[in-house]
Amino acid sequence: MITNDLTSKNGHLMIGGVDSVDLAKKYGTPLYVFDVSQIRSQIRKFKSAFEGAGLKYQVSYASKAFAVKAIYQVMKQEDVHIDVVSGGELHTALAAGFPSEKISFHGNNKSFDELVMAVQNHVGVIMLDNFHEIEMLSRILKTDDEKINVMLRLTPGISAHTHKYDQTGQTDSKFGFDVESGQAKEAMKQVLDDSNMNLLGIHAHIGSQIFGTQGFVMLAQKMIAISKDFQKEFNYWPEVINLGGGFGISYNEDDDPITANEFIKQIADELKQNCDNVPEIWIEPGRSIVGPSGYTLYEIGSRKDIPDLTPYVSVDGGMGDNIRPALYQAKYEAVVANKMDEPIVETAHIAGKYCESGDIMIDQQPLPETVPGDILAVLDTGAYGYSMAMNYNRNPRPAVVFVEDGQDKLVVKRETYQDLTSLDLDY
């Protein structure tokens, strides 16, 4: 998000028509805040782009980005699919009342019990990732006399231009059936031979935080080529080609993400040029749906000034509620929520409170004059903030608030010290 796009009133940052400083006072800090209207807007942009391109499609929210009951309920209201990657995410979605037939179950090491849970709850499709899963699922389906839709996750040999930990489509990956070695064809044969599995299509995901369209165009080309190969060898043409997600967002002024229209138009053109019978196209945006809608509010505390060096301004959160700067060297921008109209006077390190020297949330942040008690708002934290939060140093995880049309609603309670010890047993 570019800071120029932010709105303020009486010098205070406004989020979804609500004063962020009032939110900090009401719910405490650190605090995750989501502007729900931004979430809905992004989903509708994806849908509109597909409809404009004339493609059959599904938008499937990649809920690993942010998985709580309330977000699944928003997704249900917006009539999209979701994908889950664990029994815990599946349980949360079902507890939220999300329809199981619109759930895809991903993961590279699903347990036997997770597969049983998926089958018994009649999830829409299981994304098969390896031969071990094919064998386990086959056993479960025969025992329960059930049938289920499946898709094969492939590693098509395409690397996204992104952080190495975010690359998932290249041959040397823990995910999916390798195409080049023939694994994908063997998996295809095994699934087609199993009468309890309906092979809905093929899937690939090339990475995360991708800004260009080239990788996605190459993926579309490769998936059509693979489909034609499968048609020749197995007389099978996919109902669905799932191109995964990975669409980047703007965390700072150096980021230049593609728009939904750009991405989908180029993909549609490529697909239509290369095959007469274009399958239904699925995408799995996660970060691009919830990332820009999220803000994390902190209270500024201590300060350390060192002669001739950048000062440190500390906040009451850090790597426990946003591990990405420490894990990925991710870059964020922030504003002082109660001093939106005040001039910038310095640049500071924004330091977290955790007992790690690497707990620096923002390395060089322009700031107005600050004092303890000011509210710092870090922007674009909607993806992988809450979902990767932890209790390191025995700190409780923050609350989550949704705002929309000038109204705020608590959707996840703040953890208490009592919550931290609720599972501990005496020795």
TrEMBL record:
The EC number(s) attached to this protein equal 4.1.1.20
Under which pathway is this protein filed? Answer: Amino-acid biosynthesis; L-lysine biosynthesis via DAP pathway; L-lysine from DL-2,6-diaminopimelate: step 1/1
Q: If you read the UniProt record, what top EC class would you report for this enzyme, in one word? A: lyase
Query: Which residues are recorded with the post-translational modification N6-(pyridoxal phosphate)lysine?
Result: K64
Q: Which Pfam families match?
A: Orn_Arg_deC_N
Any stretches that span the bilayer, and where are they?
A: none
Q: Which residues form a coiled coil?
A: none
Q: Which SUPFAM superfamilies match?
A: Alanine racemase C-terminal domain-like (SSF50621), PLP-binding barrel (SSF51419)
Which positions does UniProt annotate for substrate binding?
R287, R324, Y328, E356, Y384
Q: Which CDD domains match?
A: PLPDE_III_DapDC
Q: Which UniProt keywords apply?
A: Amino-acid biosynthesis, Decarboxylase, Lyase, Lysine biosynthesis, Pyridoxal phosphate
Q: Where is the active site?
A: C355
Question: What NCBIfam families does this protein map onto?
Answer: lysA
Q: What is the protein's known function?
A: Specifically catalyzes the decarboxylation of meso-diaminopimelate (meso-DAP) to L-lysine.
Give the protein's recorded name: Diaminopimelate decarboxylase
Q: Which organism is it from?
A: Companilactobacillus heilongjiangensis
Q: What is the lineage of its organism?
A: Bacteria, Bacillati, Bacillota, Bacilli, Lactobacillales
